[in-house]
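WARN retry 2 of 3 for item q-0093 after timeout on previous attempt; input resubmitted unchanged.
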Amino acid sequence: MKIPMLLIALVTVMASCITDQESDYERIVSRDTRLLEAYLERNGIDAIENPLGYFYQKTESNDVGNQIVNKDILGIYYEIKTIDGQMIDSYLDETKPPRIFLHDEGGLIPRVMNFSAGLAKEGETFKIYAPSYLAYQEYSFQQLILPNSNLEIKIKYANILSEEEVEELEDSLIHAYLEEQGKVGFERTEEGLYVKVIDESEADAELAAVDDIVVFDFELTQMGSDAVISKSTENSPLQVKVGDQGNLDFLNLILKDSKAGMQIEVFSPSQLAFGITAQVFPYQIRQDLFNRGVLNSVARPFEPIYFKATIKEVK
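OK item q-0093 returned
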């Protein structure tokens, strides 16, 4: 059987591209390994080299802690800086709730913090010396993150959380936030939403039922943040079919029995909103990564969201 010349040419080009890509990757690995080894030697640091390419020290052990395994939900405290001393992010105050991520492929940026979790037990602290290709790679963000930065990371894997514990934590966060901000008039539903309704509808206004279309203006943010996750545009309200499986769970819950003229405010736990999304440190780069198509959600995982809406029409 004769092989078409076009196919031969295409395979040749593809093989050439793969070779080039591999050689580029090998050069990056060689460069980062050389820089990290020089840094460790210069500072007298005795660290273990992991086959994935990063170096680590266990600085705090916990022999009785549970071994971290895939799909565990982890609460951590950490500090991220470059080996040149540039601080990127620090969250070490253990009087505050831990920051949380799912130990899973794609669960965390920078991903080396996720990889090293597999070596740890609950309560242990690691120092990680990470090559750029396991960190932010060629990504840059203002003056905070420069391309090809090798990192030194301190991370405490403080606890392994059950789904029930995460729900309780988010509920306590919402409750505390309402008290701190002096927000009143919110009622907790059995599903775990905190809802406030101002009813300025007509007495005989139609109540929205499953399969009805509700038209509304809205704004959605992470609780405690002014950064907008999503909002309607002027003169372009959102239209949603009540009960649709594609809706966020909290939307179906609050839109049922709504009516034109209602103003609704909601604090929703993550499990009724965007669910488990990838975690990103530092928080400042999340929107930029979302804009670049790296993330499929700008909402942070395991944190409540705040939603406010004005119902314009039920049809």
